Amino acid sequence: MAGIIEIAAKAGVSPATVSRALRGLHHVNERTRKKIIDAARELDYPIRPDLLPPGAVSKTNTIGVIAPYISRWYFSQAIAGIEQALREAGIDLLLYNFAQIDARQRIFQQSKLVGKVDGLIVISLPPTEKEFEKILGLGIPVSLLGVPTDRCSYVTIDDIQGAETATQHLVDMGHRDIAIMIGQRELAVDFKVARQRQEGFMNVLHKHGVEFNPAYEVVSDFSSRTAELAMDDFLARKKLPTAIFCESDEMAFGVYRSLQKKGMRVPQDISIVGYDDHEFGSTIGLTTVAQPVRFLGQLAASQVMARIENSADVEFSQMNVPTELVVRDSVLKIN
Q1: What sequence ranges are listed for the domain HTH lacI-type (predicted)?
Q2: Using one digit for the tens of pLDDT, what is the confidence trace for 105-136?
Q3: What's the sign of the alpha-carbon dihedral 158, 160, 163, 167?
Q4: How far apart are CA 258 and CA 280, in angstroms?
Q5: Residues lower than pLDDT 50 in the chain
Q6: Domains and their CATH numbers in the chain
Q7: Do 221 and 183 meet the contact criterion of CB atoms below 8 Å apart?
Q8: Which of 72, 197, 208, 311 sits at 20 to 30 Å (Cα–Cα) from 243?
Q9: What's the CA gap between 313 and 158, in Å, rounded?
Q10: Are the C-beta atoms of residues 93 and 82 closer than 8 Å to each other?
């Protein structure tokens, strides 16, 4: 594919002028900008839709989805909800996913997205300032799923409040020695969820004057296997809590497995509360905080489609969907 040097030669300007023009900077006169854009179009160079003349942009009938993972439960459920809404509207989905920092940097390059999608949904990933500039600079509707912002549409839940609900249930059931299994920060992403759920947990303990034992903080990630290994180590200590709040149901499944290996019972030996309402949770009787992840995906898709249809008249849609405590059999009431 042609680059800035080839465009500059064809338009008869310097590469620096081409760079400024294609980034939409103002200190390029419109006549020169038009020459550069015409040259870029002839060379099939990707151009931001907002720089093209009216009528030059054809719809792709495709919405892009950026997700750091596709196999983890939360992301697969969100993508399934987005796909269902798009399929019903006759729109295609183009999925971008990554697990390393360099892959993230490549995906957020404008040239990867320009002219390929009519809208964009970013799942549970807070964009950096530079990434925000790039995706908003595409001139297409954008919605963030799980990340509130005042710069575009979003749909999310209140993770602090959800964790408060889970912890309050344990306190109401008489528990005071409560552990928490938290998700560690990952290099390629900057999830806020782990810190927010930990904040909600601590809020309730402080509210009731319950002193938290730092030794009761168990660090894992959001997978069942890692949680099982972390719980194996935790159970080796002499003094154990009466309950544990896991920041995801998949963590809770790992905790269940670890307790079973030790011959311990839920909830008689340790009570468990999870977060998500994974479909397997009902099978083992897990009390959890339910979030409607597929519905969140459908809402994000609807936000983008509405702005594609009539962006001039549709304001940013910013939605906070409530969570719900689902009480099952994994918490024992104690005196």
Answers
A1: 2-58
A2: 666 665 567 778 999 999 998 888 888 888 88
A3: negative
A4: 17
A5: none
A6: 4-45 (1.10.260.40), 62-157+294-321 (3.40.50.2300), 159-290 (3.40.50.2300)
A7: yes
A8: 72
A9: 28
A10: yes
For the chain, the three-class secondary structure string (H helix, E strand, C coil) is CCCHHHHHHHHCCCHHHHHHHHCCCCCCCHHHHHHHHHHHHHCCCCCCHHHCCCCCCCCCCEEEEEECCCCCHHHHHHHHHHHHHHHHCCCEEEEEECCCHHHHHHHCCHHHHCCCCCEEEEECCCCCHHHHHHHHCCCCCEEEECCCCCCCEEEECCHHHHHHHHHHHHHHCCCCCEEEEEECCCCCCCCCHHHHHHHHHHHHHHHCCCCCCHHHEEEECCCHHHHHHHHHHHCCCCCCCCEEEECCHHHHHHHHHHHHHCCCCCCCCCEEEEEECCCCHHHHCCEEEECCHHHHHHHHHHHHHHHHHCCCCCCCCEEECCCEEECCCCCCCCC
Sequence-distant (6+) residues with CB within 8 A of 26 are none
Distance CA 106, CA 109 (A): 5
> Which pLDDT belongs to residue 189?
62
The reply to whether omega before 267 is within 30° of 0 (cis) is yes
Q: Report phi then psi at 116, rounded to 5.
A: -100, -25
Residue in the structure block whose two tokens are 């906070």: 320
Q: Which two tokens stand for residue 201?
A: 């947990």
Tell me if 296 sits within 8 A of 78, measured CB to CB: yes
Whether residue 131 contacts residue 137, with contact meaning beta carbons closer than 8 Å, is answered with no
How open is the CA angle 128-130-133, to the nearest 5 degrees? 110
Instruction: Output the pTM of the full model.
Output: 0.81
Q: What letters, b where the CB count within 10 A reaches 16 and e where it falls short, cover 70-80?
A: eebbbbebbbe
